[in-house]
Amino acid sequence: MVRMDLHLHTNLSACANKQATVEGYVEKAKDLGIDVLGFSNHMWDARVKGASEWYAPQTFEHIMKIKEDFKLVDTSIKLLLGCETECDKNGVIGISEEAAKQLDFILVPNSHTHMDNFTIPVEEKTTLERHAKYLVKKFMDIVNHPLAKYFTAIAHPFHAVGCKEHEEIVSYISDYEFEQCFMAARKLNIALEINTSVFYKYDIHQLQNTNYIRMLRIAKEIGCKFTIGSDSHSLEKMETLSCADHVMRFAGITSEDLLLL
Q: pLDDT tens digits for 172-212?
């Protein structure tokens, strides 16, 4: 049974539900038997130039307000303070070393390609194959970043957020390309996230045969570690964690392959 959720957004994230609070998530975690909660609000550090209009208010100082909420919760559940930062189209990642040292974990997505001309040049989405190749480049931009040693996991790897053909995009990425990406991540101990918001809509047969499972199997063979996150922007979304056990089973991932923080 999955007992962690390392990808939660509270109402400090601009896109999260107003009722998404630390207290609410803790109560939900008790119901679901979760022992570890990782809060990863969207963040672009003001010390790094280039924030988009949407990201600009979501500074490091903004997400650190959550520490006051932690103090108000009396629980045996382990609470971790992290962030989900961003990699822009030029390979700039919105976090400074000063901020990185103060966080328990850092998630960086290679697949927030719904942010046209911020995270991806719009011409890179003219075909699904071109979109796929850009996701590979983006992954390598992240693992080759000067601060990569601080990165904990790649959030929802290769899942083109907001694109209805997201699973077909993954089909254009070869086993060899995945191997190269995952060997680079393994060398830096950067994990891959099993993001249940990607998987919960599939039935068992569909899930077993997705290109995402192919991807995760390759990562497992390479020796990568994994984190599990619901990517919740509302309390109810935590319930998608139930599909993580199926994902792990189909990909051959065991509890020993999980990165424990």
A: 999 999 999 999 999 999 999 999 999 999 999 999 999 99
Query: Whole-angstrom Cα distance, residue 13 to residue 28?
Result: 19
pTM of the model: 0.97
Residue 138 pLDDT: 98
Cβ contact 38:259 at 8 Å: no
Record the tokens describing residue 165, joined without a space.
Answer: 């053909």
Provide DSSP, 88-147.
-TTS-BS--HHHHTT-SEEEEES--TTSBTTTB-GGGGSSHHHHHHHHHHHHHHHHTSTT
Q: Based on the number of CB atoms within 10 Å of its own CB, is 126 exposed (0-12), middle (13-18) or buried (19 or more)?
A: exposed
φ, ψ (nearest 5 deg) of residue 169:
-55, -45
CB 198 within 8 A of CB 156: yes
Looking up tokens 């089909």 gives 171
Mean pLDDT, range 223-227, rounded to an integer: 98
Asked if pLDDT for residue 76 goes beyond 80, the answer is: yes
Residue type (1 letter), 258: L
3-state secondary structure of 182: helix
Q: How many CA atoms lie within 13 A of 189 on its CB side?
A: 9
Exposure string over 226-255, b if 16+ CB within 10 A, otherwise e: bbbbbbbbbbebbebbebbebbbebbebee
In the structure encoding, which two tokens stand for residue 249, read together?
A: 């089973």
**Which stretches of 9-67 are assigned E, i.e. beta strand?**
36-42
